[in-house]
Design goal:
This protein is an alpha/beta fold. It is built from four helices and 40 strands. Among the domains are: 3-88, Udp-n-acetylmuramoylalanyl-d-glutamate--2,6- Diaminopimelate Ligase, Chain: A, domain 1 (3-Layer(aba) Sandwich), CATH 3.40.1390.10; 156-303, UDP N-Acetylglucosamine Acyltransferase, domain 1 (3 Solenoid), CATH 2.160.10. A twelve-stranded mixed beta sheet has the order 8-11-14-17-20-25-28-31-34-37-39-40. Strand 22 and strand 23 (189-192) form a beta hairpin.
């Protein structure tokens, strides 16, 4: 669907420098843009590429003007980029109704606007809110609740008693509410500890493909509103993740750890159980966290430690070969024979 530059600028809370009535027919990066496309630039290199591309207009910040292109000036180009993408490439709206191959329990409460796709199974007493989408092969366990505008991609499994807020997106293959990993050693064998809690997911959460969130042993595993979880993340039983956190691919969080708000856990970080991670903390990629982290802490390494300490140690390690050479030279001068 085409838009004028003025219409796009209004949607992005920006201003047009140039023809406000020009028609924009698509959105693309500078190297793939065609005539009529909108593109964006957040630095001088990208802006130069955009000016020399066939694109009709460029999203940019207040630093930039152009004699070649229309510029839509915005405060934050990357935020505007995210908004513009959604305008030019809206997600398809699936029709309300239940596919003939789906199995829906008679006791389930399904809003008339919900879409239940092929081979989905909806258990007893499940509640599906307005505009819920179950794409295909989704299993929703008994007594689960899915709020308005929840979208499940194919093959997502929701275990019984899971509570999911509004506007949550869960990608293909994710499993929400499976057993926590709980065993006790009893006379030489591992006796299973029944996991009878559930999972509670706040509004506006997104969970990536093949991620797993275990239910609580007692009580709930909690994912706070606005948190975004990448693919292949493991969240163990009774973990509590705060609001607006970012959890990047292959992170593992052991049981009962509590994570504050606006925390970033970078790729492949591992957190031991029963820890407290403060608000706005950052855990770097592949860090192994064994102790609590205070508010605002930035920790690196394995075992993880504050970033300044870790960096000093890295610098010292890099100097170690030269120091060893110097020591060896002094030993030769002094006639020392090290054992």
């Amino acid at each position: 669907m085409p838009f004028t530059t003025a219409e796009i600028a209004k949607l992005l809370a920006g201003e047009v420098l140039g023809d406000a009535h020009a028609t924009l027919t698509g959105f693309a990066t500078a190297d793939a843009a065609k005539p009529g496309d909108l593109t964006f630039a957040e630095n001088e290199e990208f802006f130069a590429a955009a000016e020399n591309s066939p694109a009709a207009a460029i999203i940019a910040d207040a630093r930039f003007t152009s004699t070649k292109k229309i510029v839509i000036r915005v405060a934050q180009p990357r935020v505007a980029f995210a908004k513009a993408i959604a305008v030019f490439f809206p997600e398809p709206k699936l029709p309300a109704g239940v596919h003939p191959t789906a199995v829906v329990a008679k006791s389930a409460q399904v809003d008339p606007s919900a879409h239940i796709g092929p081979h989905c199974v909806v258990g007893e007493r499940v509640k599906l809110g307005a505009n819920v989408v179950l794409q295909s092969c989704n299993s929703i366990g008994d007594d689960a609740v899915l709020g308005d505008d929840v979208k499940l991609f194919p093959n997502v499994t929701i275990y019984p008693r899971t509570q999911i807020g509004k506007r949550v997106r869960i990608h293909a293959g994710a499993v929400i509410g499976s057993d926590g990993f709980g065993y006790v050693l009893d006379s030489g064998f591992h006796r299973k500890v029944m996991q009878i809690g559930n999972v509670v997911i706040g509004d506006d959460v997104e969970i990536g493909a093949n991620a797993t969130v275990d239910r609580g042993a007692l009580g709930s595993t909690v994912i706070g509103k606005g948190t975004k979880i990448d693919n292949l993340v493991q969240i163990a039983h009774n973990v509590q993740i705060g609001e607006h956190c970012i959890v990047i691919a292959q992170v593992g969080i052991a049981g009962s750890t509590k994570i504050g708000n606006y925390v970033i856990l970078a790729g492949q970080a591992g957190l031991a159980g029963h820890l407290k991670i403060g608000n706005q903390a950052i855990v770097a990629a592949q860090a192994g966290v064994m102790t609590d982290i205070p508010d605002g802490g930035k920790w690196l390494g394995s075992p993880a430690q504050p970033d300044k300490e870790f960096k000093r140690q890295v610098v010292a390690l890099r100097r170690l070969p030269d120091l060893l050479k110097k020591i060896s030279a002094w030993e030769k001068k002094l006639g020392v024979n090290p054992e």
